[in-house]
Design a protein that fits this description.
heterodimer; A: alpha+beta; 6 helices; B: 2 strands; 70% helix; globular
Amino acid sequence: MLIDWFTVIAQALNFLILVWLMRRFLYKPILHAIDEREKRIVGELADAAAKQTEAQEERDEFQRKNKEFDRQLAALLSQATDEAKAERQRLLDEARQAADALSAKRQETLRNDAHHLNQAISRRTQQEVFAIARKALRDLATTSLEERIGEVFIRRLQGMDGEAKAGLAAALKTSSSPARVRSAFDLPAEERAAIQQALNETFSAEIAVRFETAPDLISGIEFTTNGHKVAWSIADYLLSLEKGVGELLTKKDTSQAKAEPQSEEPQPQTQSH
Amino acid sequence: MRLSPDEIIFWQYGFFKLNATIVLTWGLMFVLAVGSLLITRKLSTGLRRSRWQNFVEIIVTAIEKQIEEVGLRHPKKYLPFLGTLFLFVAAASLGTVIPGYEPPTGSLSTTTALALCVFVAVPLFGIEEQGVGGYLKSYAQPTAIMLPFNIISEMSRTLALAVRLFGNMMSGAMIIGILLTITPFIFPIAMTALGLLTGMVQAYIFSILAAVYIAAATRVRRPKPEPEAKH
């Protein structure tokens, strides 16, 4: 008999026990471990996906902020540049204005100084020239020259036109005081006599004459009576000369004043750089 | 000539006896249980795990997948029964590499016990799934005429399970025994290797057939396909 029924029963029991044992020690723990692992992997994957999403969001946020920051930076920079430009322009304008004002003031001062100096120099020159001329003429006014001057005076007296002569004659008549004959130098007695004679002849009367010496006449003779005058002097020439020189200087001054601003114009430009 | 380890009896008291089959089965049970205990004692749920854990995970998931492929919807429910069938038969034949060992599945008593377990388990699972009425009705499918044939089929396939496994395992051991007496070198080793392969195939066939029977019994309102495996 190949089948032993006791063994069959025993083996069946053994097998059922083995099923229980394997279930207890093998399948349950292994399946549990696998499930746990799968759960864990699913969790980790979900976690990773969440983290990835979060990272993506953070990256987007960061990029957005970065862009915003760049934009703000550019705006600030451009604003700062504009402000700096405006400030620079303002400062430059101020500086230019200040330089212009200073330059104008300086030019004005210079011009004034030059003008004053010119005037002073010309005045001084004038004075000196005429002083020298006066002095030279005074030195040159020798007796013969004074004689000549006397002759010239007498000739003038004689050469007067009718009106002037009449005026003078009337003045001589009305005058209570004697007529004066002033000269820059002492007239010698012959000259005095010649002048007296000439006066007497001219007005056909005995004219009372008082001779005086006046150094400021500069080689001249003057006959005055009651507001009328007959004179000859080189001081007249000098005066007219002085006037001519003065006019010349004034003309030169104005032309200089016109030319100066043109020559000084480039200066502010060079100062602005 | 000894055909079965049943014949080696260590102790007997009337009907009760302790033969080599039972002792070897105990040995196998011990090895399987202790091995499982040792491996599953320190299970890792993380991504890093020991080689042994990996090994048993592969076996368990492979069995589970096979059960699913056969057509059982909840493989975890049938895994302990079908998986243990496979592991026991496979371990019994793998043990043949140890000299002096005889597979307990080489005993018709053992294979009959296993076939009877399947014979009992199939209606149990079927009733659990379809209810008593639903399960019993399946015997009269597609017509009532088929009822006796279905019952005969139920009996015969249980017998076939038992005899197929016994014949294969016994013949393997027998061939090696005979060959050892004729050509003691090389050939027995080759035949042992072949025996290992046969044992694995038998373990697979036994458990797959059991799974197919259970699947057929638990399938609701479907014509029963009758896969006939002849080995």
